[in-house]
Amino acid sequence: MQNRHSTFFLSVFFGMATLFFISACREAPPPPPERIRAIKTITVSEQASGKLRQFSGVVEAADSSSIGFEVSGNIREVRVDVGDKITKGQVLAFLDKRTYNLNVKAAEAELGRAKVQLADKRNDLDRFQRINKQDPGAVSQASLDQSQAAVDSARKQVQFTKSGLKLAQRDLGKTVLRAPFDGVIANRYIDAFNEVARGQKCFDVFENTGMDVAVSIPEDAIDDIQMEQEGKIQFSVITDRTYHGRVSEISKVAGTANAFPIKLTVEDPDQRIRPGMTARVTLLLSGHDQKAGYLVPLSAISQREGTQKGSVYVYDSNTSTVKKTPIEGSSVRGNSALITEGVKDGDIIAVAGVSFLEDGQKVKLMQQQAKEEGFAIKKAE
């Protein structure tokens, strides 16, 4: 009887183990990893309209100055050279001070003598007044008036010599040439032990925090330039960046070849921009026939469902996703559309396979995919 029970329990145990093994083998396989689509993109940058024009320009410092000594003399030392950075109040050069020190001492001596003469004239007047008080009429009124006039004259002489002393001290201080503001030495015209005249140019100094680009605009385009108008500035020697400028000056008088000088202030300068560099300035002239916008490839535009309007997919680098963004356009030019609303400078948009994209979809740039696969491609232009 006991053997029967043992056989029964063994049969049940092995049966359950077999069922458990079969069910474990039949579990669904894990889902495949999410496939992140790689997209080809462009960066929106160039504005376009019927009046997009480019002009050549030259960089100028927004604040520059030619400085020199306000007194003449022999240069004792020059402490800076071309290209040196300077701070406001820094000593740039100074003259031989011996002559000016002597002038100060002479003025001090002259002041001392004038003060002694004033004291003598006051003593004479006080003596006449005491005598006349003790014996009225002993000193004539004419003598009293003459003595008072001598005191007044001596007092004026003291004031005059004080002014002379201040001038001598000021000239002594002017023997030191200091920087008028923080900046950079652009040019140097002096050397030690040379004689300089009062007002002679010694240095050209420019402020390195502000830069302008001077441009000459033809007379047929000057009416389309407005104050505070934005422009893009590029330099042939700086190929990795485009700068932004704003029109800050417009001349009312034509210059050479009937061109009107204007200036654009560089809004995002860096240390690579230097006065004298040539620049290429792109301006969107104020046209009245069409709105300004950005040229976008037609392949980047998908039609919005149920409408005749389009959308583009803008890439968000923070989340690595694309956002479906409505756009407005004004015209088609070849394989591109002029988009007036919906995109802005710097937007990264998908330009291929947009029909397979969805709003909020996670993607990666084609350049990134190539790097992960061991290849290299150029950034989309």
- Biggest sheet descriptor: 6 strands, antiparallel
Question: What is the general shape?
Answer: elongated
CATH arch. level architecture of the largest domain: Beta Barrel
CATH fold-level topology of the largest domain: conserved putative lor/sdh protein from methanococcus maripaludis s2 fold
How would you characterize this protein structure?
The protein is of the alpha+beta class. The chain folds into 4 domains: 39-46 and 292-372, conserved putative lor/sdh protein from methanococcus maripaludis s2 fold (Beta Barrel); 52-62 and 210-284, Elongation Factor Tu (Ef-tu), domain 3 (Beta Barrel), CATH 2.40.30; 65-95 and 175-206, RNA polymerase II/Efflux pump adaptor protein, barrel-sandwich hybrid domain (OB fold (Dihydrolipoamide Acetyltransferase, E2P)); 98-173, Helix Hairpins (Orthogonal Bundle), CATH 1.10.287. It has helices spanning 2-25, 98-134, 141-173, 366-372, and strands spanning 37-39, 41-43, 47-48, 52-61, 64-67, 73-78, 85-86, 91-95, 176-178, 183-188, 195-196, 203-206, 211-217, 230-235, 238-250, 260-266, 278-284, 293-297, 302-303, 310-316, 321-333, 336-341, 348-350, 363-365. The strands form 6 sheets. A 6-stranded antiparallel β-sheet has the order 3-18-22-21-20-19, with no helix packed on it. A hairpin with a 2-residue loop joins β21 and β22. The longest helix has 37 residues, at 98-134.
